[in-house]
């Protein structure tokens, strides 16, 4: 029997749809999988302890927590990590995404990396008004702001530490309040949807956005293929913005939720995740024989 851990913030993720769907599909396939919360874990010279019990080595982990070192120590107990730890840690960061990722399937918005000290006129000279400001490691729509004037920028800079870095991006008006999210497994698109905000410009399911299935076209397929070749990330949510002639890159999510995707498309994303992991270990076994 394969054994694995889902690394999360807490061990008891009561309303976490994604975690519980993956657990459900793992159980159907005879995989022993449990949630290990970073908040319930310590690391000592003797090992990794979860709720005072030493964690044993396992076959695989699924990373679903972004921050700091405990998650990496849990991951080190596994033969395989999804997504691989060093790559996961790199592409949590939105700046590393726009710096490194390119595709014939999308355009890249103009962007700048700056801080709260960055001169407003310097930003607007390059990006125009309005522009978008993003925290580098935020998720679910947090720390994403539409800056429409100097007062908006001043409020942003006063709300957070002025040393905080931001990704400032060109605003894509055609995509106001909507975007495309697709789920990619090793460069293959298995499901795709649009997200449409109830109000405002952020189209996050966590903020109440509506979802519906969206056709998988050549641009979407090319984007998934290119991003996988450039990153090696196994399981990935990719967001594109609507453009006049071609979509624009928005961001990738190395720990995407699947509730909206399964609801919009009817695709068993959780099952596909577990099937991919099982396939890896079957392949390993056949090679060792």
Describe the structure.
The model has no long low-confidence stretch (mean pLDDT 94). Helix 1 packs across helix 9. A hairpin with a 2-residue loop joins strand 4 (47-50) and strand 5. The protein contains 9 helices and 16 strands. The two termini are 18 Å apart. The strands form 4 sheets. The protein has a 5-stranded antiparallel β-sheet with strand order 14-13-12-15-16. A 4-stranded parallel β-sheet has the order 2-1-6-7. Strands 8-11-9-10 form a 4-stranded antiparallel β-sheet, sandwiched between helices. It has helices at 17-28, 70-75, 85-91, 94-100, 120-127, 150-159, 218-231, 259-265, 269-288, and strands at residues 3-8, 32-37, 41-44, 47-50, 53-54, 58-63, 78-82, 111-115, 131-135, 144-147, 165-170, 178-185, 188-196, 210-213, 235-241, 248-253. The chain is globular and about 60 Å long. By secondary structure, the chain is an alpha+beta fold. The chain has 3 domains: 3-82, Rossmann fold (3-Layer(aba) Sandwich), CATH 3.40.50.20; 110-171, Dna Ligase, domain 1, CATH 3.30.1490.20; 175-277, D-amino Acid Aminotransferase, Chain A, domain 1.
Give a quick rundown of the structure:
With 289 residues, the protein is an alpha+beta fold. It contains nine helices and 16 strands.
Notable features of this structure?
single chain, 289 residues, alpha+beta, Rossmann fold, Dna Ligase, domain 1, D-amino Acid Aminotransferase, Chain A, domain 1, 3 domains, five-stranded antiparallel β-sheet, four-stranded parallel β-sheet, 9 helices, 16 strands
């Amino acid at each position: 029997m394969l054994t694995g851990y889902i690394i999360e913030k807490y061990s008891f993720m009561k309303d976490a749809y994604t975690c519980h769907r993956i657990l459900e599909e793992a159980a159907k396939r005879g995989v022993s999988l449990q949630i290990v919360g970073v908040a319930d874990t310590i690391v000592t010279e003797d090992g990794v302890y979860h709720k005072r019990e030493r964690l044993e080595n396992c076959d695989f982990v699924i990373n679903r927590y972004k921050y700091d070192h405990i998650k990496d120590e849990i991951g080190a107990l596994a033969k395989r990590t999804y997504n691989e730890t060093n790559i996961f840690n790199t592409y949590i960061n939105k700046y590393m995404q726009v710096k490194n990722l390119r595709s014939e399937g999308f355009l890249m918005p103009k962007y700048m990396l700056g801080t709260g000290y960055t001169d407003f006129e310097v930003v607007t000279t390059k990006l125009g008004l309005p522009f978008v400001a993003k925290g580098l490691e935020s998720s679910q729509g947090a720390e994403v702001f539409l800056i429409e004037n100097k007062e908006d920028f001043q409020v942003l800079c006063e709300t957070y530490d002025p040393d905080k870095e931001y990704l400032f991006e060109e605003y894509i008006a055609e995509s106001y309040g909507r975007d495309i999210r697709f789920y990619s497994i090793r460069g293959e698109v298995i499901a795709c949807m649009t997200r449409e905000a109830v109000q405002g410009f952020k189209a996050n399911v966590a903020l109440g956005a509506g979802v519906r299935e969206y056709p998988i076209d050549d641009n979407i397929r090319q984007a998934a293929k290119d991003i996988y070749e450039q990153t090696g990330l196994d399981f990935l949510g990719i967001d594109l913005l609507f453009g006049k002639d071609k979509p624009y890159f928005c961001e990738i999510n190395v720990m995407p939720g699947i509730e909206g995707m399964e609801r919009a498309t009817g695709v068993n994303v959780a099952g596909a995740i577990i099937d991919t992991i099982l396939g890896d270990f079957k392949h390993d076994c056949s090679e060792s024989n």
